[in-house]
Amino acid sequence: MKTSSASRNPRALRGRSLREQLARGLVLTSAAVALTVLAQACGDSSSSGFTDETPDATSSGSSGSSGSSGTSSGSLGSSSGDADVADGLAACATETQKATLLPLDLYIMLDRSGSMEDKTAAGPTKWDAVRNALKNFVDDPKSAGLGVGLQYFPLKHAGVPDTCTSSAQCPTGSGKCTLKACHPVAATDPIKFCDNGGDCGGQACRDLGTCLIGGGTCLSGDPQYDCLIGPCVTFTSGSCVDEGCFATDYQAPAVAIGALPGSAAAIKTSLTNQVTYGNTPTSAALQGGINQAKTFAGANPGHTVVLLLATDGLPTACTPQDIAGISAIAAAGKTGTPGIKTFVIGVFTTAEKATAQTNLDAIANAGGTNKAIVIDTATNVTTAFQAALDAIRGQALPCDYNVPVPEAGTPDYDKVNVQLTDGSGKSVVANKANAGACDPATGGWYYDVDPSKGTPTKISLCPTTCDKVKAGAGTKIDILLGCKTIVK
Fold it and tell me: Per residue in 89-130, pLDDT tens?
């Protein structure tokens, strides 16, 4: 008798408790943000590209220009307000460059476990609804320029048999054969497969099966988890439970990260050809996804790479299975070098949604993205999932810019200023020593490398300033070169 799908879904022992759980990361939108770099000019044309000395905003006087050498002089009066300071900086810069936002790449780790075949209220299965949303997303003109790569979970590890009749047939690392399970202490405990009582810490090791009347997974002879009516028909073959628990499998992409729209065809073809099966090896998939994102970021300096973990349930395979352990994987990915943020999208029934939100939020928060997006299967899942992808694209858009190089001379990193223009006018964004010095109230900007210790390659906006840029339609960031950096 073939292994029933229920034997691979320990949630059946717990009624309608959450099937599986996971997390993933995503994308960028900020068509509202235009970046123009206004480069040096106040100095002598034969010297550095950032030559002219512009006093900081605490000085007194007015801005202006004099002298046949082409130098400008003067200062910016603090009593005049931000607009006057900004005007003074603009007057100090006469060369204009166009700079580019640093690229954003998304590595998608997509759940294709058996429960993705459940129907949504709109009719399609969760799997079809999510696939259609992803296809729409990569075809969306707003996604142009975004790098996207893709992998699925679970994946069957090479050398693991399709079926087993004993754990001896499961290679090292692929776990036990799913024919016997320990008596769960609580109905919400994840199932633990076993060969004998010694694997169960004092609990009984029982034969797994399916109820002849009514279906559902059962533990033969277990007073609590046996069938209410009729016999428990035990399985004669199973599968190696941890067949998908090799992080290296998920590190290798099904579709390598590539910029849209060029990579769209490969992604859509891959999605079309995939089938659902198995459990949810969340920890292995998350670790492998973070590993791939780090590898790609290391090979592509200047790129911001994030992970998107999309799932329809709680983890049901691999160690760790608990949310705290999986959150620790996401946290380690965020704090490493390079740091990788993890975004999470979940698809759950109305009854499952509250519990799913709490658990997925923990993973997203640990991964640096604060909160997961949980979609109710009672809604149009295709529409809602695509909207979630759009939202993540906007949230993930980095506020990072290349340090512009003047047309002549050597950059002077002490003569760079950032100016923000929105509906209320122009304001100067203060320079900060590093990300840790960002002001949560007023924001700021900083270099990726302290100029006194190395050569900066990136200008980054502090979170408060970045949020302001993303939120305002028509908001513009200008980088002005040639005027003394304002740090207050």
Answer: 766 655 545 445 688 999 999 999 999 999 999 999 999 999
User: pLDDT per residue over 139-156, tens digit each?
Assistant: 999 899 999 999 999 998
69, two tokens: 């050498």
Domains of the chain and any CATH numbers: 42-92+401-481 (no CATH), 102-155+248-398 (3.40.50.410)
Closest CA to 125 of 134, 116, 133: 116
CB 24 within 8 A of CB 108: yes
The amino acid at residue 105 is D
What are the tokens at 475?
A: 């908001």
Whose tokens are 């109905």? That residue is 187
**Spatial distance between the Cα atoms of 413 and 40, rounded to a whole number of angstroms:** 12
For the beta carbon of residue 472, count every other beta carbon within 10 angstroms.
17
Question: Cα(228)–Cα(273) distance, rounded to whole angstroms?
Answer: 40
Overall pTM > 0.90 = no
d(CA 82, CA 425): 9
- Strands (DSSP E) along 57-204, which ranges? 63-65, 72-74, 95-97, 104-111, 147-153, 180-182
Q: What DSSP designation does 3 have?
A: P
